[in-house]
Specification:
Length: 388
């Protein structure tokens, strides 16, 4: 099954079970949300998780593009993506966690054909404030799925404040041997789906208050499942990366890890620009700037003539079409090139400043602050220039 078929199967399965489809939002969360980017499907639903009635009812389903910056330094490995899509379901005061898990199990095993013997679940063990999630535990035991109990790994929140609660995660075995060990002890168990029993709200003083009604919020990463269903463990082996992996290696010779980083960051940058963000020194624009500068740094390590202008149109269009973004590819290209020129000017200035006698020896923290505050040279860039 490719990603389109996975999305269709998922949406239809939940529509058959009384869920109404809501349109996914952009990567920009609603005002007042504590995070810079939409990191999961629940952002646009926060007011409804907190009690407001939703115009489409109490059972919802969608596919949502997400961006996670917490994992930015991990990108290049086989499991992390900056921009990805998440399938989500919500029960807004309707059914409880066990029904959600039971349907999830049914979809994975019957809808997607996963061998039930390759599944493992984790469940919240309880802490000083909130008790063990007994109903999820009993559901899994009834289905014969092994369960591991954890504390921190089975608590989900959307940042320091807001809706949160215990969750139950479903893992799939990816090893060559029969399944062994547990998800926290063996990384061949890969997480595919998270079901959050969103029962609390965290206040700014850190305390928890109960939400007015029990809600369930689930999220399943599309690219990861698509790769796993292809029998692959790298998210870069899912079909959305096929054109990238076909076109980029003939353009730029890169080792596998650099290729993954360049594919991820360029594709993410296209989506972020498509959602209206422009490179800047702070906030969302800064994340975009970091993505592009990292790509340029990697590309030019081997050949200083490489640049963003080489990016094939087909990849820009493929990405904009996939995310249904109505943006002129020419405009997008101009944003990329302007940022590249800005970076080139900064590099020139950086080389010039670092050649001064004061900065020739080892750099102290004070030097790095001075270079940043007075000369506008970010720490990463200074360290990169010193490495060359
Ligand atoms: N909000 C939860 C997550 O992001 C479930 O969607 O994992």
């Amino acid at each position: 099954m490719n990603t389109d078929q996975i999305v269709r199967t998922f949406l239809e399965y939940y529509e058959e079970r009384g869920h109404r489809r809501i349109p996914g939002s952009t990567l920009l969360p609603p005002p007042g949300d504590p995070v810079l980017f939409t990191t999961s499907g629940m952002h646009q639903l926060t007011p409804y998780l907190e009690g407001r009635p939703h115009p489409l009812g109490r059972r919802l389903v969608d596919v949502q593009r997400c961006l996670r910056t917490t994992d930015l330094d991990e990108v290049g490995d086989t499991t992390h993506l900056t921009v990805f899509e998440m399938l989500g379901t919500w029960s807004l005061g309707d059914y409880e966690g066990p029904s959600s898990l039971d349907w999830g199990y049914g979809l994975l095993t019957e809808g997607f054909g996963i061998d039930p013997g390759l599944l493992h679940a984790t469940v919240f063990a309880g802490d000083g404030h909130t008790g063990e999630d007994r109903s999820s535990l009993e559901l899994w035991q009834g289905l014969g799925v092994p369960v591991e109990l954890t504390v921190e790994d089975n608590w989900w929140s959307n940042g320091p404040t807001g809706p949160c609660g215990p969750d139950s995660e479903i893992f799939l075995w990816t090893g060559d041997t029969p399944p062994e060990s547990t998800p926290t002890r063996d990384e061949r168990w890969v997480e595919v789906w998270n079901h959050v029993m969103m029962r609390h709200r965290r206040l700014p003083d850190g305390s928890l208050v109960p939400l007015p009604r029990h809600t369930v919020d689930t999220g399943l990463g599309v690219e990861r499942l698509a790769s796993l269903l292809r029998g692959r463990t790298s998210v870069f082996d899912c079909d959305v990366f096929d054109p990238w992996r076909r076109l980029l290696p003939s353009l730029w010779r890169l080792d596998e890890e650099s290729l993954r980083l360049v594919c991820d960051h360029l594709r993410s940058a296209v989506v972020v620009i498509g959602d209206g963000v422009r490179p800047a020194g702070t906030g969302r624009g800064h994340v975009l700037r970091r993505l592009l500068r990292r790509v340029l740094t990697v590309l030019r390590r081997d050949d200083p003539r490489r640049g963003l202008g080489d990016l094939p149109d087909e990849l820009v269009r493929h990405t904009l079409d996939h995310f249904r973004q109505d943006v002129d590819p020419g405009l997008l290209r101009r944003v990329l090139l302007e940022e590249e020129h800005r970076f080139d000017r900064l590099l020139d200035r950086g080389r010039h400043v670092l050649a001064r006698p004061r900065f020739r020896g080892p750099l102290s923290e004070d030097d790095l602050h001075l270079l940043h505050d007075t000369y506008g040279l970010p720490r990463d860039l200074v360290l990169e220039l010193r490495r060359r």
